[in-house]
Design a protein that fits this description.
This protein is mostly helical. It has a domain of 124 residues: Orthogonal Bundle (Tetracycline Repressor, domain 2). It has 10 helices and no strands.
Length: 197
């Protein structure tokens, strides 16, 4: 790119390029050079906006977590079918970019270290955030009487995240909705049935 040309929202341009590289080449192929080439900018552009490549990756993951948090699954509590709401949430959560980002977080020790500075706690960032989102939604459904009041929403959320990751990871094409719905229904079946007793 010629010098002196103003770039609009260079951070987002670099994030979008990183996501395309992740989808095409995976975590191993995600380098600062690959990102800047994909974005069509000089390599120095990335380093003008970020301390180093791991700082860039940490911001990329944080932006993905912010996107996840903006979904506001809790607003669907009390409406529609619970299994359908959760199935849709898992499909949104485990889109191909998110699955690649989870792989990236697992793959890069320094990235996990940086993320834990702002998001302390066990587990894999992105997945633990998603589990918290699902648990908050399930708690709302408990309070509304749509699942058993004594349901262990944290355990249910972790089960849904683990099952969702197994369903979506390593696939060229996301699984059919009915396959995800079948697993979701099995995970929450006891909590839904005990509400009826």
């Amino acid at each position: 790119m010629p010098t002196g040309v103003a770039l609009r929202d260079v951070r987002q341009q670099l994030f979008d390029a990183a996501e395309r590289v992740l989808l095409r080449a995976g975590a191993n192929g995600l380098t600062s050079r690959a990102v800047t080439e994909e974005a069509g900018v000089a390599k120095g552009v990335l380093h003008r906006h970020f301390e180093d490549f791991d700082a860039f990756l940490a911001d990329l993951v944080q932006s993905r977590i912010a996107r996840l948090e903006s979904q506001d699954l809790r607003s669907s509590a009390g409406t529609g079918d619970i299994a359908h709401n959760l199935t849709r949430a898992l499909a949104d959560l485990f889109d191909p970019v998110a699955v690649s980002i989870v792989g990236l977080v697992i793959f890069r020790d320094e990235l996990r270290t940086r993320l834990r500075r702002t998001r302390p706690g066990p587990g894999i960032p992105v997945l633990t955030d998603a589990a918290s989102m699902l648990a908050a939604y399930l708690m709302e459904e408990c309070e509304l009487g749509r699942i058993a009041a004594d349901a262990d929403v944290d355990a249910l959320a972790l089960s849904l995240i683990g099952a969702g990751h197994m369903l979506f990871a390593g696939r060229e094409v996301p699984p059919p909705e009915q396959e995800v719905a079948k697993v979701v229904t099995a995970v929450i079946a006891d909590a839904v049935q005990r509400r009826l007793l």
